[in-house]
Amino acid sequence: MGCIQFVCSSDACLNGRDNNPGKEGVDQRSDAVVTRKPQNPDDYCPKHLGFNLYLPKTLTPKGYAKLKLMNISSNEYKTLVTNLNAKQTGWEDPDFPANESSIGDMKAIGQNIDWKRPQEIHPNARFFSDGPSRFDIKQGVLGDCWFLAVTASIASYPQLFDKVVPKNQELKGPDYVGAIRFRFWQFGQWVEVLIDDRLPVRSGSNELVFMHSSDPTEFWSALMEKAYAKLNGCYTNLSGGLQCEAMEDFTGGICLSIQLNPYQRPQDLIEQLKIYAQRCCLIGCNIYSRFPFLQKLDNGLISGHAYSLTGVHFVNYRGKTQWLMRIRNPWGDSHEWKGAWCDGAPEWSYISQQEKENILLSFNEDGEFWMSYEDFVTYFSNIEVCHLSLESLEYNQDFHGKRRLDETIFSGQWQRNVNAGGCISNRTTYWTNPQFRITVKDPDPDDDDNKCSILVGLMQKDIRKQFGPEFHSIGFMVYEIPDEQSTIMSQEQLSMKTPISKAQFRNTREVTAQFRGKPGAYVIIPSTFDPNIEAKFILRVYTQVANSEKIGIMQNHATLKIKLNDNPSTSFPFAK
Description:
Blueprint: E1 4-8, E2 32-36, H1 68-87, H2 100-103, H3 106-109, E3 113-116, H4 118-121, E4 137-138, H5 145-155, H6 158-164, E5 179-186, E6 189-196, E7 199-202, E8 212-213, H7 220-231, H8 243-251, E9 254-259, H9 269-278, E10 281-286, E11 295-296, E12 302-303, E13 306-317, E14 320-328, H10 353-358, E15 368-372, H11 373-379, E16 382-387, E17 406-414, E18 436-440, E19 452-460, H12 464-467, E20 474-481, H13 491-495, E21 501-506, E22 510-517, E23 520-528, E24 535-543, E25 552-553
Parallel strand pairs: 1-17
Antiparallel strand pairs: 1-2, 3-7, 4-8, 5-6, 9-16, 10-13, 10-16, 11-12, 13-14, 14-15, 17-24, 18-23, 18-25, 19-22, 19-24, 20-21, 20-23
Helix pairs in contact: 5-8
């Protein structure tokens, strides 16, 4: 049975209190490690954690979380419904009003807008007409094809969709008051976004301005986009986003970006794709553009557009193995690939009927198409792979027989003149950054070289909504250490060490890196590029084989509450 580990820095170590690890599973006042199998509802109650990772009880492995935040939201929702029913009025969200402030840049929209409730747009308005489908969704005037692509992907998986969209929501009935609920993952916790059902339409009409369903009576997709717009400040903030961020916000997974140009593309990419096909992953792909607008190419593809990679299969083509990629355009229309292996292409005449059935081949103008691996890496620019873990799915849920990864979450922060040492170029202060240890005892079961694959993601708290568009430049280094080492790596030790993996410094919400290594102990050192930059962060580690109990935070912040040019003691018994 798998487990999730939460490794959390509490205020204890920052206030100079003793740093004595308590028993596993109790409230350890400093550098707590919580490792539990998902059994009892109280096992992941936030009281055990210095950093509150609120995970909805209804959304997670059976009983592994108790959600104070969501319970409050549910109670407030029930109170809201009761009060509005008594007044016989529809709810109007004061935090996301039906005016220009919720739209954002009105010039970018280029038209006048009215706001209407679904019943005012169509007399037979429903939340779903026939359940969610990746073929339901149509893009509006926003440049948020990246959001459409991810929405279409999770619509194909009820296990994921039901986490974001609570069940049993309708647009009619005695208890319907115009309030709709959605859930998104934000910086280590699931948050509930409550919106009213007023939607932007073209002035003087019933035509929805933004994302909508192909069925005019269905409104779940338009309402989901509104909730995500509220989460991000306004509608126009959704223009020009990244699939990887939406994937993580919809699943709680961790996303890895792979460049497809011949200079950066992994030599074993097809082998990696085969592995991803066996794991719980969502995969997006993009075509970069030199221009700030979409450009339709002669081959049917669209430059500057986001797509979903929905399948990786091989067929026997003229006696040879041919790898094929199944791609979906979130527009869901006739804008499809026109080259080899497109719908109705002559290549398909050489494929047996059995193989066609095995890969569920169909030719429809639905935005989904096939292309060869060779053409795929030629015309597409990058792949974004979102790995799902126990955080992303119910523990007892089956995801088409695919494997989930084990997850360890560290929380921390960089503090000025304490542990914000900057990147490795700052040689006298770099070692003061937080140091996190992981130990993987066994190789991956499917690795022929007896190595283990480790995926690391460093995420900084999103400050864009409060303080503007800039992120800090962040990155991390990974080092091998002896199994018996139980102290932080000193300045001298680090000067003689070469990292075995690293994430390049970027001013993005998250940086990730994946590496293969032999089973053993590793230290991860996250940092900002410049020293003395303050920020909160979470560090997530995904492995096929569960991390051992020998895991913890190798940094005694109490000893580092000094000037950075001092030399504190390096003796610290890390948490077990």
